[in-house]
Amino acid sequence: MSKVEEIYGSLVFNRITMQEYLPRGTYKELMTTIDDGEPINESLANVVAHAMKEWAIENGATHYTHWFQPLSGITSEKHDSFIDPVDDSHVIMRFSGKALIQGEPDASSFPSGGLRATFEARGYTAWDPTSYAFIKDEVLCIPTAFCSYNGEALDKKTPLLRSNKALKEQVQRALALFGEDVKHVMPTLGAEQEYFLISEEDYKKRLDLVLCGRTLFGYSPCKGQELEEHYFGAIRPTVSAFMKELNEELWKLGVPAMTKHNEVAPCQHELAPMFTNVNRAVDQNLITMELMRLIASRHGLVCLEEEKPFDHINGSGKHNNWSISADGKNLLDPGDDPIENLRFMVVLTCIVRAVDEYQDLLRMTTASAGNDHRLGGDEAPPSIISMFLGDELGRVVNAIIAGDDYHSNSNTKLDLGVDVLPNFDQDNTDRNRTSPFAFTGNKFEFRMPGSNQNLSDTNMVLNVAMADSLSKFADDLEGKTGDEFTAACKEWIRQTLTEHQRIIFNGDGYSEEWEEEAKRRGLSNLPNTAKALPAYVSDKAYALFDKFKVLNKEEVDCRYNVKLEKYCKIMNIECRTMKRMVRRDYLPAIEAYAAELAEEIASIEKVLGEGKAAGQRKRFEQIATGAEKIHELCDLLHVKHHEARDLEDAQEKADMYADIVIPIMKDLRAQVDELEIITDRKYWPCPTYNEILFYA
Ligand code: ADP
Ligand code: MG
């Protein structure tokens, strides 16, 4: 491998490259734009575009693209070359400021959820200078936002940027009360990415994996993850080669990939980057996911990014580690003097309020057809949101609520605003892995998002919900100073924590008792996408997004529609794939084996007399009865699938898929899986879990 320090960021137009390629004045002007969100003028853009092009060409680029995230959540690009023909045999390479700032992809081919009728197909992409341009496969990729000509957001990035701005304003207001005048406020995100790697050969033999990214059938493997030998175990050579190449490519793109290791399930792995500002972190996560798929293919592997590719073993999540940085200070770092501690308690209290108040909305952002199979599984948080604060901080919070004196381990009494809080970092050793939203020393880790998710929505909601709490704090406390402020602040913390304490839960989030307890507390439990999405279009959500100018009603509606539509489309694909596999692969295989068994029974009985092939007979009966049930269930699935498919109303359609179609799919799968383990393996049409998950 090349020297890491030399390759790191070599394909990114970052601050260092900018300094090298831009005139001093232009560089300074651009930094003001980036740091303070000042608009870009065309003459600045022209200079930047020229420098960017020179740099890109030197690094092998021939094309450029506006790189953006339409509402489907994946990234889109359309490559334009730099060439500008001057005569029949000559070209010069050009890139204008205009082409850098704004592009015009054909918006009609991207989902808009009804926001933009197709006849108004025009939409435009606008350069986001806060996320660096980079070179991928000889193409200069320019991160952009994607909007309609009326200015409505048609992408995932725009609302995230708006929510960053809203959060910044409210953090500034709140911190001003502590006498702090902060300039740069940015939420930070570290997105841990889990994924599976399987052999391409096996993958190609399974229509479900190829079309749905996950298996729709498969009996549990004889050995699962119970020996816990995979987690942190030695990494197999093919995987290791994949990881090395992935790291090198990511480092070139300035993605700070830090940790790579095996995960709990066989064939499951994780990559964790160093955290950075949320906008760049989301972009980097999307690049990471794309490179994972690409690089796997160079090693005879396939990277599965779906949340639950295999039943019976763990699924994959994308832990959303989130905090807020203000002038370089982490606001979730408790600090070590009393006033910092008080500020920390305010920030913490605001998060507790935000998560409780907007639990449905947060849950909604993690809802997808794939994640439905993961959430509530044995390894993943349930679909109920709760927060874990750790033992020590939990005790502090309880004491505040009860109005008691808090005694830390050293048994000194603690008075908020006067005394210093204990060190919560030490609590990390026994932190609760079952909590969906856990405080981990100096950040919160939201574990509900699935591996395949674009994290923009989740962080957009976190930001704006937090902005709402901070704005309430500022509204309530503005005008108070000195001791009066400290006293009022303590009282605000106590009251708010008391109002929202139901969201705090330190026990086992996977247990059934918790479901009961959560219900008693009035926490919501939205078990699937169809039930979770309506939170988006609730009055409360409209009001929140509108108050902070993050999304207007039309923009919210269109997002809800796109999510519903996507869910229904995936369900339709899965139903069709399932039926196809049953009819063309599984039933013919099972019936061929049944025919062979029947012949065998006949010939044995011919020689040895009736009743002599008892074992074969029993097996034949199992197979014949099983096959009959499969026929029935497949017919039933067909009828209900079509009923759902033909419903007009998208919400009704989604509900029918979730409530009626999915249970039939589960029954059908169970029936096929039953026969998988008694059918002669030479008949079985595709690789089983044993083979896929335990390849050499
Ligand atoms: P794990 O959850 O596997 O124990 P770590 O606690 O080491 O992992 O960190 C997980 C992720 O959290 C990493 O991506 C890390 O960069 C990120 N992280 C650490 N501090 C912050 C922060 N202040 N804001 C956002 N993310 C952070
Ligand atoms: Mg984690």
Give an account of the 3D structure.
This protein is α+β, with helices and mostly antiparallel strands. Helix content is 49%, strand content 13%. The strands form four sheets. Strands 9, 10, 11, 12, 13, 14, 15, 16, 19 and 20 form a ten-stranded mixed beta sheet that branches. Strands 1, 2, 5, 6, 7 and 8 form a six-stranded mixed beta sheet that branches. It has a two-stranded antiparallel sheet with strand order 3-4. Helix 9 crosses helix 10. The structure holds adenosine-5'-diphosphate (ADP) and magnesium ion (MG). Magnesium ion (MG) binds next to loops.
Strand content: 5-15%
Please report the number of helical segments: 23
Major sheet characteristics: 10 strands, mixed
Radius of gyration: 28 Å
Low-confidence stretches: none
Straight-line N-to-C gap: 26 Å
Structural class: alpha+beta
Ligands and ions found: adenosine-5'-diphosphate, magnesium ion
Instruction: Please state the average pLDDT score.
Output: 92
How helical, in percent, are the residues?
Answer: 40-55%
- The coarse overall form would be globular
Strand count: 20
Question: What is the structure about, briefly put?
Answer:
The protein is built from 23 helices and 20 strands. With 696 residues, it is of the alpha+beta class. α14 crosses α16.
Which characteristics define this entry?
10-stranded mixed sheet, alpha+beta, 696 residues
